[in-house]
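Encode chain A's predicted structure.
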Amino acid sequence: MTFATLPIAMLSMDDIVRYLAIVGGGAVGAFVTGFLTQTIVRGYTGQTVPQWVVWTLRILGGVAFGWLVYLLVFGQGGSLFGGLGGGGNGKDGGGKDSPRDTTPAVTTPKDGKADDKSKDGSPVPVDKSSVVRVQVLGDDPLQEMVKAGRVKSFDSDRCYRVDDDGPADLKTLKEVEQYLLQRVRREPPLKRIELVLYKDSPQKKVPRVSELKKWADDLTLPGKDEKVIVDYKELGEAAPVR
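Encoded structure for chain A:
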């Protein structure tokens, strides 16, 4: 082996193919750039492009194409069209002999609550006895209940109704919170709270809805690092007042 052939001998066949691809890409880029430049200018203006302009664009085109091929062949993975970390030795480029992390990924719900879906994505059945539905009523239904004699007087703060209670048994926010705190300590354990919104209920951003949602989102099961699931149940009908 002579000194002149030493650098080439140190290169693997894959490396030689990559370098040849870069040179070929540069040559193709230079040719295509020059050809398109002369063709387009001559076609639109009928004039000939000066040679120094053609050669300048050829050099730029060759460098651009060569750089593009370089990014492709020396990219990750180490194959001809992989990415950074190259080489086909599998050491840094994720080859077949490189170690792989086989530990399953552990995902945590964004809201920190217990996941209510099974592994296949289907909903996990929830025992109805572990669900509490809280209806949030608007001013119009409350006024109708006063007219119908269901309640004695109008009170905008007393606008919550729990399914377990009677139709006219309205609660304030503080009373609902106390009820849920008691319910979470009973058996079967409370798993889900559904905030029922009717067509004439306040919007989600209205305080009488948002404040209850914010409070319920922090409700956890006693002795467990597990939050109660809180979601909305929106109905396209008016709230029952009778």
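Residues 161 and 169 are 7 Å apart (CA to CA).
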